[in-house]
Design brief:
Low-confidence stretches of chain A: 444-459
Number of strands of chain D: 28
Helix content of chain A: 25-40%
Shape of chain A: globular
Largest interface: A-D, 72 and 71 residues
Mean pLDDT of chain A: 94
Number of helices of chain D: 18
Low-confidence stretches of chain D: none
Structural class of chain A: alpha/beta
Oligomer: heterotetramer
Number of helices of chain A: 18
Strand content of chain A: 15-25%
Helix content of chain D: 25-40%
Strand content of chain D: 15-25%
Strand order of the largest sheet of chain D: 8-11-12-13-14-15-18-22
Largest sheet of chain A: 9 strands, mixed
Strand order of the largest sheet of chain A: 5-4-18-17-16-6-7-14-15
Chains: A alpha/beta (459), B alpha/beta (115), C mainly beta (269), D alpha/beta (550)
Mean pLDDT of chain D: 96
Shape of chain D: globular
Structural class of chain D: alpha/beta
Radius of gyration of chain A: 23 Å
Radius of gyration of chain D: 22 Å
Distance between the termini of chain D: 40 Å
Number of strands of chain A: 20
């Protein structure tokens, strides 16, 4: 980032947090031009982080809120949003992975109060891994354990070099720790992917299964760990030779602290949660021989916080429905791709997410049919089709709060400069307050009134 | 000539950096409407860098621009593109009780668009 | 005469109707029936808002119309019958332990989840997770029978521990996944990864099936129980030809990553 | 918004003030008990009712990283036990690991108004405080896990005892904890670093740090007592669940000498017999030692038959339990600080060991010579849910009920214990001690567990009933800090509750040595580690004891 045209009035923010990806690096040193309200230098940031900090500038000319595309006051937009949610029979809330835990807590409260449906981007990211976790459990760790102890690190179905550029250096490959003083020299790195991605450069061993055969390879490895025989044609069917599998199993059983990181190459392909489940089961099996852990490499900055908040408030990590006045969980029924594609939802509150650009066609078509309330820092396909849209400040850059790293470690952010635009939490608090007033006013009729309506606690 | 190939939508660092500028900005739209194809597949399909191709399946279709990759970068018959509005057009919605649509390894028919 | 409910208007959002179960309708008079509560999204709505009501309940319930957005019909039923003249939505016969459900059209996902007894017959296709365990649960269907004449989706009989599932058409991926016991018959073609993690139980396929590397070939034979099962399934309205009923089957045992005590039987013409 | 109250005609049980079922008037003003009738007080007629201070849970697992993992793990457990919202309360899910809102409201429905989360990693403190903020009605705090902390073990190894003390105080301050928690001290390193091994002797020297569990225990007992923390080190001994662990438990108590110490869920540590063979009851030995050593307090960790969830920082134990059914299992390593294991579990009457555990817990209660130092707990949700407290109370108060329950269990196991011969029945006053006054005293909470002037107005009013399970299951009134929360068994109000923590003074110079370790071996920045006050919301710093502080 160039420092030319940086004015005199700068401040430096140390130990700031980058929330672009799930690494949530908290060692940023930001130089902020307070006059131009922009970050002119982000020391320690990766290429993604530098773009994140450089591009989130203040677009003063933009309205704080719009209704039907026309600029309006935040107050009017809040009223309109509350009316939409209050009247809906199946209002869905979605997004939240690029928002603070404080905002996420307000979003769950809204869904609880209006007896709606809440889901996060987890459902189209590592939701299947969450499902697998509920069936198998998980042997896992915080990333510092990998840095301090791991002597075998396997990346499966992910491309961290491009999606999580600092994962190697900060945590898992070259990082030096208590029992790994020589960093990469003390480790063996394995990459398993159907493509030879840039991440392969960091690996001592690269295995390339045929596309869609990850499950079969994982299953074969589990069989070998358990001392079972495999058919001779295993290479034909999977693209990985028996020798390569036996070698990997030997390394896995004989390491001191083994780690399996996995990405969406498992969760987004045929097999979905069973692919993640096979990997979690493999890590579990290996604990008969040595200490072995696994960890999904999560994407968005605070998607892990969303899992945590939704879980502690409802008991379930995503895909939660409150129609009956209490939480129910059922992926495939209460997850957003399904509630939209089936045409179930009759209103949507979308927070810091853009389903209109990356959901399946049929879901996007329904989104265009129903009233949508969108909160985002920039214009997106979703804000463009929204009936009510709010332009928000950027978490971590303009607003503080809590975010969870991919390994569930919570970090408190240090904002760099103020934004004229309100944060997600502020807007969601206002909507929560208003829908609750409307529901109390409606009294004992209409939406699930007999089961009584949740009131917000004084917080 | 048309042929069925496997499409893998995924993240790329260019997609990552450009989406910070804004998802309605040219750069992001360009990054997400390019498909990477290995040399051998390109020549077999008679394609050149920059050609426009139509990707289609039972769900829908999208027109994107070819980017040539080295043969070692991709297996035969496999193409890569960054997630985005274009790849959505080809994604079936059925999540099979999981919440997750199949977003990678999508079978698509590829054919050159002759302007 | 029996009770006949006809759908008047198509709901705009899903309608949850666990009350449409013989056990819940027993000895209700007309006005009580009319006031039975459905969940229309998050709104409690009386039955009469959506259904016209004819006859009196004598154990048999008839539902007419496109009920594909109506969920939870027959939940926990223990007796009596439900006949749907049309399609039905998700969670049909959840945890039912007795009685019979017949669907003339198609059914949604989650047909007979955690079912304990009774019978479900679907003339058309059904969705995913037939006779399955709900998420996080270790045990799915434990008894009774589910017969789907058409095709079914993924995870049919997930964690099934007893009973019979018969599919007239094709089944999706992971048929019989995590199976603990019981029998699944697929007359069409099963998807991939059949019976992954199976501990015990039988999956019978009348066509070639792609198996996991953790299933191993035992022998080719004609187990007598297959004849009995297939004849019984025919008596329920499927038509499996004699050759399959009397023919030989390859026995593959697995899943080797588990106890290796389950079996997949594949018809060998 | 707190109301002035006057509670009349109730039978008051306030053991701390020597009131045993006498009719007394109680006045409440501005959230506290007062001794004169306040202006415009609303009168509550508690005729035919029993008035007690709000319950105090000294040891439970209700919030934080491991609890949330256990929640996410078990949708099947929640599905069968939904917790609907009301006009005044949020909805949630129940089961053995309820959602945060359900946890707070369900404690209230038992008449409990204070609960302490018993095991939190320092790096998980921020998460825990966020969850506790969403845990309504009750006041709450947590114990911070330091017994396997690598930096602290290195200080002990180097003999830097004074820095050790300062570092412990720094950690307590930085996490806003209530006291230190030791879990299987010295057991993490073999688990993480030596292929899932464990330490099985209190004097076994750790290969990496060259110190023994006993040395770790001694260092914490000395430090926490020197600082005069209101609650002493809270110890989960080595060898939990293993036959013959009574030796380790006695040695742990002996290590404390006459210094204050609290032994957690002592039932799980009262087993005789040979390691690897069936356990025997050693309740008598343990009860004898505790009875004769007034410096020791303990909670029982009663096992209740039915569904439970094992969640513990004792990872090797969880892995051992996982071995029985090979079901779902979570292991979660926390860098430089702790391990963690989670296993869904069920205690069954017919199983020898489960019956033995059940019987040993009851023996410990019934053999106790001093109810003030033995606290009612199930180590929720390890021994069973806190929702089973009313049944446990009935087991202690109702001999005939106890004998009926004994008929259902494994007789071979039962006969190997003294339980069939124990005729003792707890009185209401004793119940008030083991569920209120005792734990409040053990925690050093001067304003809790009693109804004297100045106490927090945390009051529970029960209809007096023969069936004590029914009675303790449904208080007619629950008052929290003077706010009416439950009236005629219905929620009529809400309360956020507050965080209870301590802040011992320490020597700032320790920060530099912690920082240098941190920068090498942690994966987050040192300056982002300490929890800031904005995570405390409504909170109370409980003062250290006189003579404490350095």
């Amino acid at each position: 980032m160039s420092e030319e045209n940086s004015s005199a009035n700068t401040r430096v923010v140390e130990n700031a947090t980058c929330t672009f990806c799930g690494c949530v690096c908290d060692d940023m040193i930001l130089t902020v031009d307070m006059d131009q309200k922009k970050i002119i230098k982000a020391k320690n940031a990766c290429v993604l982080g530098r773009a994140w900090f450089a591009e989130h500038t203040i677009e003063e000319d933009q309205p704080k809120a719009k209704i039907n595309g026309r600029p309006t006051s935040v107050e009017d937009a809040v009223e309109e949003a509350a009316q939409i949610l209050f009247k809906a029979r199946f209002p869905i809330t979605y997004g939240l992975s690029d928002s603070t835990c404080e905002a996420q807590r307000q979003a769950v409260a809204i869904s609880d109060i209006i007896h709606g449906n809440i889901d996060t981007t987890t459902s189209v990211c590592h939701g299947p891994s969450g499902l697998a976790f509920q069936g198998i459990g998980e042997s896992t760790m915080t990333l510092g354990e990998v840095k301090n102890r791991a002597d075998l690190v396997i990346y499966w179905g992910g491309n961290p070099a491009e999606s999580h550029p600092r994962h190697f250096g900060r945590y898992a490959v070259t990082a030096k720790g208590l029992f790994t003083p020589n960093g990469k020299k003390d480790r063996t790195i394995v990459l398993v992917d159907v493509r030879k991605t840039p991440s392969a450069g960091a690996a001592n061993i690269f295995l390339q299964p045929k596309p869609g055969k990850d499950f079969e390879v994982l299953w074969a490895l589990r069989a070998l760990v358990k001392g079972r025989k495999l058919p001779a044609d295993i290479e034909e069917s999977t693209g990985v030779s028996l020798e390569a599998m036996e070698d990997l199993v030997d390394r896995m059983k004989n390491c001191n602290y083994g780690v399996l990181f996995f990405g969406m190459g498992l969760t987004m392909t045929r097999g979905r949660h069973f692919n993640s489940g096979a990997l979690l089961a493999l890590a579990t099996d290996l604990n008969e021989y040595t200490h072995f852990v696994a960890k999904p490499v999560r994407g968005h900055g605070n998607v892990t916080g969303a899992d945590n908040v939704v879980s502690w408030q409802t008991g379930y990590p995503f895909g939660v429905n409150f129609s009956r006045g209490f939480p129910r969980f059922n992926p495939g029924e209460f997850t957003t791709v399904d509630t939209l594609s089936r045409g179930d939802a009759d209103a949507a509150l979308i927070i810091a997410s853009d389903p209109a650009s990356n959901f399946p066609k049929q879901a996007i078509e329904h989104l265009a049919r129903i009233p949508v309330i969108a909160l985002d820092t920039k214009d997106t396909a979703t804000t463009s089709l929204a009936k009510v849209s709010f332009r928000t400040s950027t978490y971590g850059i303009n607003t503080g709060g809590t975010v969870y790293r991919m390994d569930d470690v919570p970090i408190s952010m240090r904002p760099a400069f103020e934004s004229p635009f309100p944060g997600d939490e502020e807007i969601l608090r206002a909507i929560r307050k208003r829908v609750h007033e409307l529901i109390i006013a409606r009294g004992p009729h209409g939406a699930a009134a007999e089961s009584k309506v949740a009131a917000p606690r004084k917080d | 000539m048309a042929e069925t190939m496997l499409l893998i939508p995924g993240r790329s660092s260019k997609q990552g950096t450009s989406l910070n500028k804004g998802k309605l900005k040219e750069e992001y739209l360009a990054v997400t409407s390019a498909v990477e194809i290995k040399e051998d597949d390109m020549s077999r399909l008679g394609l050149n860098e920059g050609d426009r191709v139509r990707l289609s399946n039972s769900v829908g279709e999208t027109i994107v621009t070819c980017v040539q990759k080295k043969n070692i970068d991709l297996p035969d018959g496999v193409m890569f593109m960054a997630y985005g509005p274009c790849s959505s057009q080809l994604m079936a919605w059925d999540t099979a009780g999981s919440g997750m649509p199949l977003s990678k390894n999508i079978e698509v028919t590829i054919e050159k668009v002759s302007e | 005469m029996s009770l006949e409910l006809t759908l008047l208007t198509q709901p705009e959002v899903p309608l949850e109707a666990d009350v449409l179960s013989p056990d819940r309708l027993q000895s209700l008079n007309r006005s009580e029936l009319e006031r039975l509560e459905l969940y229309y999204g998050n709104v409690r709505t009386p039955l009469a808002e959506f259904f016209s009501i004819n006859g009196d309940f004598d154990g048999d319930l008839h539902l007419t119309g496109d009920l594909s957005r109506i969920k939870h019909v027959g939940s926990l039923m223990t007796r009596g019958s439900i006949h749907v003249h049309g399609d039905i939505g998700a969670h049909l016969g959840t945890g039912m332990s007795g009685g019979e459900i017949r669907i003339d059209g198609n059914a949604g996902d989650w047909v007979g989840p955690e079912m304990q007894g009774g019978r479900i017959l679907v003339e058309g296709n059904a969705g995913h997770l037939i006779g399955a365990a709900y998420r996080g649960g270790a045990v799915g269907m434990t008894g009774g029978e589910i017969i789907i004449k058409g095709n079914v989706g993924n995870e049919t009989g997930h964690a099934m521990r007893g009973g019979l599932i018969a599919v007239g058409g094709d089944s999706g991926d992971f048929t019989g996944v995590n199976m603990l016991a019981g029998t699944i018959v697929v007359c069409g073609r099963p998807g991939i990864r059949t019976a992954a993690s199976m501990k015990r139980g039988s999956v019978i396929s009348l066509h070639e099936a792609e198996l996991l590397p953790t299933f191993s070939y035992d022998c080719c034979y004609h187990p007598t129980y297959i004849r009995l099962y297939l004849q019984y399934i025919n008596s329920r309205g499927l038509n499996i030809d004699e050759a399959c009923i009397n023919g030989n089957y390859e026995r593959w045992s697995g899943d080797a990553v588990e106890m290796n005590r389950g079996e997949i039987l594949i018809y060998r013409p | 918004m707190t109301t002035a109250l006057r509670i009349i005609n109730g039978k008051v049980y306030d053991p701390a003030n020597g009131i045993d079922g006498e009719s007394r008037e109680i006045f409440v003003d501005n959230g506290r008990i007062v001794d004169t009738l306040p202006e415009g007080a609303r009168t509550i007629d508690a005729g035919g009712m029993v008035v007690m201070p709000g319950g105090v849970d000294i040891h439970c697992h209700i919030a934080g990283p491991k609890v949330n993992l256990a929640r996410k793990l078990q949708p099947e457990d929640h599905r069968r036990d939904p917790h609907p919202g009301t006009l005044h309360t949020r909805s949630g899910s129940g089961g053995t690991v309820p959602s945060t809102f359900a946890t707070g409201y369900r404690y209230a429905t038992l008449g409990y108004t204070t609960a302490m989360e018993a095991a939190v990693t320092p790096i998980g403190a921020r998460h825990t405080l966020e969850e506790l903020h969403d845990t309504p009605v009750i006041d709450k705090g947590f114990y911070v896990l330091l017994g396997n902390n690598i930096f602290l073990q290195q200080l002990l190894q180097a003999g830097r005892r004074e820095e050790f003390k300062q570092a412990v105080a720094w950690w307590i301050n930085s996490t806003k904890a209530y006291t230190t928690k030791l879990v299987n001290p010295g057991g993490d390193e073999p688990w993480k670093g030596k292929r899932n091994k464990n330490v099985d002797d209190i004097d076994e020297r750790n290969e990496v740090f060259g110190i023994t569990p006993r040395e770790i225990i001694d260092a914490f007992v000395e430090t926490v007592n020197e600082f005069g923390l209101p609650h002493p080190p809270h110890i989960h001994c080595n060898n939990l669940g293993h036959s013959g662990n009574v030796k380790t438990t006695l040695e742990t108590m002996k290590t404390a000498g006459d210094r204050r110490v609290h032994l957690a869920h002592i039932q799980f540590h009262s087993y005789g017999g040979e390691r690897g063979k069936n356990p025997k009851s050693a309740a008598a030995e343990i009860a004898e030692y505790v009875n004769t050593h007034p410096n020791i307090s303990c909670d029982v960790g009663q096992v209740m038959f039915g569904k439970s969830t094992i969640m513990t920082a004792d990872a090797p134990l969880a892995y051992m339990l996982r071995g029985f059914k090979k079901g779902k299992w979570i292991n979660a390593d926390t860098e430089c600080e702790s391990g963690c294991g989670i296993v869904p579990f069920a205690y069954q009457e017919h199983v020898y060991v489960h019956t033995l555990q059940w019987a040993i817990g009851l023996e410990l209660f019934l053999l106790s010579g001093d109810p003030w130092r033995i606290v009612l707990s199930t180590d929720h949700p390890n021994g069973g849910s806190f929702m089973s407290y009313p049944k446990l109370i009935r087991l202690l108060m109702d001999r005939e009920f106890r004998k009926e329950e004994m008929k259902k269990v494994n007789q071979k196991a039962l006969r190997s214990t003294q339980l069939p011969d124990l005729e003792r029945e707890y009185t209401l006053n004793e119940i008030a001690i083991i569920t209120r006054a005792g734990p409040a005293r053990a925690l050093g909470l001067k304003n809790k567990g009693h109804l004297g002037a100045g106490a927090d107005a945390d009051i529970t009013i029960y209809d007096e009933q023969q069936d004590k399970e029914m009675m303790f299951n449904a208080p007619r009134y629950v008052i929290k800090s003077g706010d009416m929360i439950i009236e005629n068994h219905e929620f009529v109000g809400d309360h956020a509750g507050r965080i209870l923590h301590v802040a011992p003074e320490y020597d700032e110079t320790i920060v530099d040595s912690v920082r240098s370790f941190f920068e090498n071996y942690y994966s987050i920045e040192f300056d982002n580690y300490a929890v800031t006050d904005n995570y405390l919301h409504d909170h109370e710093v409980v003062p250290v004891l006189k003579g404490g502080g350095s």
